Amino acid sequence: MTYRELDPAKLHQTLETLQQRIDARFPSAGLSRLCRDLIATAQAVTQEAHKLAQPNWPLRVGVSAIIIAGAIAQIAAFKLLRLENVENNIGLLGNLEAAVNLLILFGGAVWFLLTLEERTKRQRALDELHKLRSIAHVIDMHQLTKDPAALLQERAPPRRMTKFELTRYLDYCSEMLALIGKLAALYADRVRDPVVIDAVTEIENLTTSLARKIWQKISVIGEIEEGAAD
User: Chain centroid to CA 109: how far?
Assistant: First the structure.
């Protein structure tokens, strides 16, 4: 592992530290349980990303064997056509058309087999990235109910947070979103598929956008604190 690559172990360590901080501050909050789910998802995601980075040798050997067998079958089929023994142009054209059709079908089959590993890995990566995207939206739902305007209400709602607690809660949400973006980036490092890279970019843009909304709330809390100090 070099300094130019994301280290999954460091990501796990950061998530576990964040979990401890959330448990210490909000032990009974749903955000704590959500962070545990994120840790479990992160372990599955990093394991899958590592597997996808490795060549699928059984599949490659099987594909190679099928292609070789298909090539041998093509040669045998051409010999059966016996183009040199055709007596008229109509027969020659018919046999040539059959030969071209065989080549087209064989070429399509070869392309399908050669891209099978890539398409399989792409689908597996997209499935894992969908899990991260879903957790990001759940985190957003948690922060939506944390409105800084509640700090100015005279009649406090149930389980009202202090300014410090609300800031910490929103900060934890922002950190979780940032870590989701980094977990998604593991796939861009290990699967150089354009579709996967686009999906990773989409998740990074999503988490950045959601974190921006959170920091706007934190800024409002800071303004409220400044107003109270005046």
Answer: 29
Specify the amino acid at residue 152: L
State mean pLDDT over 4-16: 86
Question: What are the structure tokens assigned to 130, written together?
Answer: 């969908």
What is the separation of C-alpha 225 from the centre of its chain, rounded to a whole number of angstroms?
39
Rounded to whole angstroms, the Cα distance separating 181 from 28 reads: 26
Phi-psi map region of 187: left, alpha, beta (phi>0 left; psi -120 to 50 alpha): alpha
Summarised one tens digit per residue, pLDDT across range 85-120 is 545 445 555 666 766 777 788 788 888 888 888 899
In the block, tokens 């980036």 appear at: 185
pLDDT in tens, 146-157: 877 666 555 555
Sequence letter at residue 80: L
Query: Among all chains, which residue has been given the structure tokens 């939506």?
Result: 144
